[in-house]
Amino acid sequence: MSNGMPAVDLSNCDREPIHIPGSIQPHGALLAFMPDGGLAVRSANAGAMLGELPAPGERLDERHLSPLLRAEIGSALQAFDSVLGSLSAELHERCFDVIMHQADGLLVIEFEEREAASDKLETFALRAQKSIARIQRQRSIEQLLAVAVEEIARLSGFDRVMAYRFLHDDSGEVVAEHRRADLSPYLGQRYPASDIPRQARRLYVLNPIRLIADVGYQPVPLVPEIASHTRAPLDLSESMLRSVSPVHIEYLMNMGVAASMSISIVVKGRLWGLFACHHTTPYLVPHAVRMSCQVLSQIVSMLVDRNLTAQHAAALQRSLALRDVILQQFEGNDDIVLALAENPAPFRQLLSCDGVAASAEGALHISGAGPEREALGALIEWLIDTDQPDVFHTASLPRDVPHLASRFGAVCGVLALRFDREQKGYAFWFRNEQVMDVRWAGPPHKETAHGPLGPRLTPRGSFEEWKETVRGQSLPWGRSDIDIAFALRGGLQEGSMAKASALRRAREMLMATLGHDLRDPLQAIMIAAQMLDLNSGGGGVHNRLSQRITSSSGRMQRLIDQMVDISSLQGGLGLPVSMRDVELGPLLAEVTEEIRLAQPGVELHTRLDGLGTARADPDRISQVVSNLVSNSCKHGVPGTPVLLEGRRLDDAVVITVSNRGAPIAPELAETLFLPYKPGSLNNSRNRGGQGLGLYIVHEIVKAHGGEIGVRCAGGMVVFEVCLPQSGAQAGQAAAR
User: Does residue 229 contact residue 11 with C-beta atoms inside 8 Å?
Assistant: First the structure.
């Protein structure tokens, strides 16, 4: 805001410290004692209501309260960690309900004055027992709540009792109501989530019953306002008399309510619903009546929990057969995409939806209502890039993924199940937009008012029915939907891992076949080609044919060697190396001659001076040089020479292979020594390449304890291998 004041939004209500109001309602008094018995805090009306009291810091004596109360307070202080409760007591010929609890290390005692025992209270326990029995006979949650509001109204005498059920967005709906005949009905109306701020929901769970006996009351301050031992206002979270937020008082006044009582319905530690009791005149409900209503609510909470648990278990049970069908289809096909394409019915029946889809390794299939393929692909990338959970769900794409919502057409709800991260394996369920006409109890949006402390949000002034058409969302995904999805994900993951294991075993068998069964016949072909070359006299068609056979056989031999090496590396076995002392100069000269004979079209220049001896595997070093020269020929400027150099540098030998060529892009350089890199596939200069040569070179050099790198300068591409002449590092690498 231009005046420097903070913007006003619904979080203002969430930040209101309603648990430390510093005051109580005037129909009772409050005392708080230190563990040593000294009086720490009292309400300003305590002396008028309870008589003479000790000064701050002093203990009770025979002048204060009554012998019974002093004895009870003394016992509570001695057993400070025990569960405290309530009792009835008479003081100065007045009857009180006395309620004890602990807060901030203090014993907090609240005194509520009530009428003397009457016939109504004498028969109350019997009526409460009948109410409990009637509630327990109900089968459905709807019947349970309908009966509960009747029984609470009968026990408490409130003009109106409503049962709220909170929805997935924390808004509340009145699902049952008992009211005085002349009052307007609220049944079926919705109340926005902002009506009960976050900290108020916490207090409803902590302290399940809340009474406001007179909405027009004047708060009674606590003395002192700041407790000396905590240097903060006394925490009244569990207080029965706690003063009420001015915003809530204004809310009730706007509603025409003079007294109210709220009782929590808590399921699995979460505020599931509320019983809201309203009266058109001030109304003090005795503590015993309130406690009986709380017991009814606790029984309702238990029965709701049991009902929801049964519904959830039934939904999971119904999903078992469909899940088995899906997993059988998945096992019978190569992937989930084919499984869905073959039979989408079990996918669509598993969760209530309008369409389904599946993806794996870039393949997609959509059945029923769903987005275009490009839009689904964009959603997959968003799920991955933003690291969404393995089961992602939203009932409103426009709200949660707005940049993609317009591409999804009528689809507003998505449940995405990821079961294979590497292959982008997903299953999707889609729900179309459900346009809803919501009956709000007055306009759901709060307004801003200006007062002495600046702008603040005010509760709505009207509770006349206010209709709103809600768009951009689907039916929400429930707990059962999510759990069913997680169960399917587990099965798909197991199946995916089993397929990966089978594929790995098949690859290992293939590698074994390549390495053993094909090498002997390939060697025979190469020998036959050499014999053909000898018998041809060195010219003509026979000579060209023998050269083609020799070249192709050599390429096949190199491919077999590479695949066997890859299998060994990916199996975690490392590359086998046989280390010994090797004269590098003669070794590289021999490799150079073999390259020239095998590739007569290659112009290969060498500079190999004083290399000396190194601890190495000669066959593997030959493989490194051959692969680097071959790579330079394939990717360098055609017709330009390749330079092989070797030199000693301190305790190392440096071998470089250079060629004239275009600079390697930085993003390609980062993956240059990885297998199956995209830049190697479908390369016009090496159409059969899989990007394995440089990967194997890197692993050989690493097995020797050396390093390999690439640099581009002056139009040249230079691969540099540095090998230690000492055998220590190489021996350790080989042992791994």
Answer: no
- Distances, alpha carbon 485 to alpha carbons 216, 397, 516, in Å: 51, 19, 46
Torsion of CA 335, 338, 339, 344, to 10 degrees: 140
C-alpha torsion 275→280→281→285, nearest 10: -20
Q: Is the pLDDT of residue 461 over 80?
A: no
Alpha helices in 618-707 (DSSP H): 618-635, 666-669, 693-703
- Alpha helices, H only, 401-516: 402-405, 479-512
Helix (H) or strand (E) holding 30: strand 28-33
104: amino acid identity, one letter: D
| Whole-number Å distance between alpha carbons of 159 and 186 | 13
Q: At what angle do helices 287-332 and 141-156 cross, to 10 degrees?
A: 170
How many angstroms separate the CA atoms of 666 and 403, rounded?
A: 31
What are the pLDDT digits (tens) for 290-317?
Answer: 888 998 999 999 999 999 999 889 888 8
Give 134-154 as a DSSP string. Answer: HHHT--SHHHHHHHHHHHHHH
Q: Strand pairing partners for 7?
A: none
504-539 burial code (b ≥16 CB/10 A, e <16): eeeeeeebeebbeeebeebeeebeebeebbeebeee
> 365-374: b or e for each residue (b if 16 or more CB lie within 10 Å)?
bbbebbbeee
Report the range out of 155-169, 360-374, 671-685 with the highest average pLDDT.
Answer: 155-169
For residue 435, pLDDT over 80 is answered with no
Q: Is the pLDDT of residue 550 over 80?
A: no
Q: Closest Cα to residue 235, out of 257, 206, 258?
A: 206
Q: Is 687 exposed, middle or buried (0-12, 13-18, 19+ CB in 10 A)?
A: exposed
- For the chain, the distance separating the N- and C-terminal CA atoms, rounded to the nearest angstrom, is 66
* Sheet-wide strand order for 160-166: 209-212, 259-267, 270-279, 160-166, 172-179, 190-191, 436-441, 465-470
pLDDT at 276: 93
The pLDDT tens digits for 90-115 are: 888 888 999 999 988 899 999 998 87
Tokens read off for 292: 């009986």
| The pLDDT of residue 629 is above 50 | yes
User: What average pLDDT does the segment 336-359 reach?
Assistant: 85
Contacts of 593 (CB under 8 A, 6+ apart): none
The two structure tokens encoding residue 55: 């000064």
Q: pLDDT tens digit string along 71-87?
A: 999 988 887 665 567 88
What is the DSSP secondary structure assignment for residue 510, as one 8-state letter?
Answer: H
Give me the half-sphere count of Cα atoms (radius 13 Å) on the Cβ side of residue 271: 27
- How much is the average pLDDT of 202-230? 89
CA dist 542 and 535 (Å) reads 8
d(CA 496, CA 506): 15
**509: pLDDT strictly greater than 80:** no
